[in-house]
Amino acid sequence: MPSILVKSRDITTFVVKEGHGVKGLAEMGLESLPEQYIQPPEERMDTSIIVPEESIPVIDMSHWHDPKVADLICDAAEKWGFFQIVNHGVPTEVLKDVKDASHRFFNLPAEEKRKLLKENSPTNNVRFGTSFTPEAEKALEWKDYLSLFYVTDDEAAAFWPPVCKNQTLEFIQSSDLVVKKLLQVLVRRLNVTEINETKESLLMGSKRINLNYYPICPNPELTVGVGRHSDVSSLTILLQDDIGGLYVRKMVSDSWIHVSPISESLVINIGDALQIMSNGRYKSVEHRVVANGRKNRISVPIFVSPKPTDVIVKSLPSTLIFLKSSNYLQTPTMAPALDLPNSLDVTKLVVYEGHGVKGLADIGLQCLPEQYIQPPEERIDMSKVVSEESVPVIDMSQWHDQKVADSVCDAAEKWGFFQIVNHGVPIEVLEDVKEATHRFFELPAVEKRKYSKENSPTKSVRFGTSFTPEAEKALEWKDYLSLFYVTDDEASTFWPPVCKNQAQEFIRSSELVIKKLLQVLMRRLNVNEIDEQKESMLMGSKRINLNYYPICPNPELTIGVGRHSDVSTLTVLLQDDIGGLYVRKMDTDSWVHVPPISGSLVINVGDALQIMSNGRYKSIEHRVVANGSNGRISVPIFVNPRPADVIGPLAEVLESGEEPMYKQVLYSDYVRHFFSKGHDGKDTVEFAKI
């Protein structure tokens, strides 16, 4: 139906009263947004105040009894008010079924949905509507919803819509245990050691589930899906689809952070009721949903609340006792910034004297030295960051399952990057190597200088800064320690004592997951067995880097690592919780942030595997931004062919008659070419093309 017809209609009547909803309006084929939906400028999302390098915590609930996990939950509730949980125990099928049921409901004819409008619904507990409160709003929100207040299973069976009642009931029932786990952990920090029947009723005495639908919008920048608000619940448990669009206000700031969809995760947020009951210790934080110009979006929140008749103010007196002895408003002290003398030779201090860029940052710079100012085309353009997308997250606990294998191979083909959880590398190993990285970079310059190119007792150990300072137009804001693994004995002899054991243990512990990934990836290439020769070619050598990115005075003018792809077969990356890694979205100029997920590893395909797969698996450009508020570390393991190996498309890939895209290349020549120049995107792989 052409959009011109809308001009002669009473849009509010059509959308609100006649039950078409905003979905019906969107399906008319609108070319511009009706004026009823145009929000005041102050209510629209200002993209300049989005912080794309930050993300809310992601918490693995598989060991929720562990005090460390409990601390992560409570800290997130205090400092963010929002977090995501994985391995929460709600079955994948339940999540998928309720999303499918949401689509089925909103695809019903208007006359069916109209039966559940406020004026027509047989019960106050079932309500189809649009926007939030249309009669009270200055501008309407671009959203339809079905709200289902849970009383009993029998009442739900009688009145909830048949197309979705079983699936929504199952989602509520399946989430009950995780809700109780979360509340048990949260109230324990409030000195509530037992949730008795009265407190359970107070915390979770009522539940409401919403099915939300956000249709494609012709002018998404002019409206909102949901306006700024906090929830009135104790907790909200949100199931997102994979579209994205939920933003959370960063506490005590005007900045906003996107909540990237993570497959099979649930988003948890604190509601006003729990903020009140905790006397402000847990924070109910403002959030909003943007409209989307390209895709329809659904979400399914469960609002876990007190009973309507409960009185919640001062309901947990033990909290008040606890807070009287606590001081949460401490102002951090900062060292005064120092001006650099004009005569300081920055390159000499950083590169040759072993201070690294950390030494430069520790001086207290107020502005970026000119040696680090990147050309505009090499800085990240935040307008090209696609904040509503994220690389796949894959649970490796059932890696023999064909669905998991397909997810790994699909990610390698379509993204070149993915994150893995439940990978088998112990959390202690990950934490230890991160701590060891900090210890190394805290060493005095005179100690680190012993491992510089000029002083290191072996070519296998190298402390440096930037990438190749002698070949770069502008330096990168990063220091590194590079450790090429030869043997345990060689590592024990030459690797720095403050980190050698932890770095070796990370390499050893990751060996099995690397083999699992390669086994899965090779199978799609018709390689049914990885014999000794192939294993040597795929993972015959390894290098581990400890990377350090100090706080930067002008992060927008420089980079942590420039655009490049890795020369490895696979790279296994451990991030800390700061963020800053961006991946180019395939075949576009857009970039996607890789949000840190606690306990996860980031996997990316390297050039060697792209060549061996004849271009089927993609080695993708990525980069790291500098950060003005936090130092960051990362620990990649580069899994490579041996230097003496000749790499090219595998025979099994070409046996069906596929034409080779790459020539046979001596791997050491390929690597030498990579390190002979500055970072330059994907240009290195051209070296191997036919």
UniProtKB/TrEMBL annotation:
<dbReference type="InterPro" id="IPR027443">
    <property type="entry name" value="IPNS-like_sf"/>
</dbReference>
<feature type="domain" description="Fe2OG dioxygenase">
    <location>
        <begin position="198"/>
        <end position="306"/>
    </location>
</feature>
<keyword id="KW-0223">Dioxygenase</keyword>
<keyword id="KW-0479">Metal-binding</keyword>
<keyword id="KW-0560">Oxidoreductase</keyword>
<dbReference type="GO" id="GO:0046872">
    <property type="term" value="F:metal ion binding"/>
</dbReference>
<dbReference type="InterPro" id="IPR026992">
    <property type="entry name" value="DIOX_N"/>
</dbReference>
<dbReference type="InterPro" id="IPR005123">
    <property type="entry name" value="Oxoglu/Fe-dep_dioxygenase_dom"/>
</dbReference>
<dbReference type="GO" id="GO:0102312">
    <property type="term" value="F:4-coumaroyl 2'-hydroxylase activity"/>
</dbReference>
<dbReference type="GO" id="GO:0009805">
    <property type="term" value="P:coumarin biosynthetic process"/>
</dbReference>
<comment type="pathway">
    <text>Phenylpropanoid metabolism.</text>
</comment>
<dbReference type="InterPro" id="IPR044861">
    <property type="entry name" value="IPNS-like_FE2OG_OXY"/>
</dbReference>
<dbReference type="GO" id="GO:0002238">
    <property type="term" value="P:response to molecule of fungal origin"/>
</dbReference>
<keyword id="KW-0408">Iron</keyword>
<feature type="domain" description="Fe2OG dioxygenase">
    <location>
        <begin position="533"/>
        <end position="641"/>
    </location>
</feature>
<comment type="similarity">
    <text>Belongs to the iron/ascorbate-dependent oxidoreductase family.</text>
</comment>
<protein>
    <recommendedName>
        <fullName>Fe2OG dioxygenase domain-containing protein</fullName>
    </recommendedName>
</protein>
<dbReference type="Pfam" id="PF14226">
    <property type="entry name" value="DIOX_N"/>
</dbReference>
<dbReference type="Pfam" id="PF03171">
    <property type="entry name" value="2OG-FeII_Oxy"/>
</dbReference>
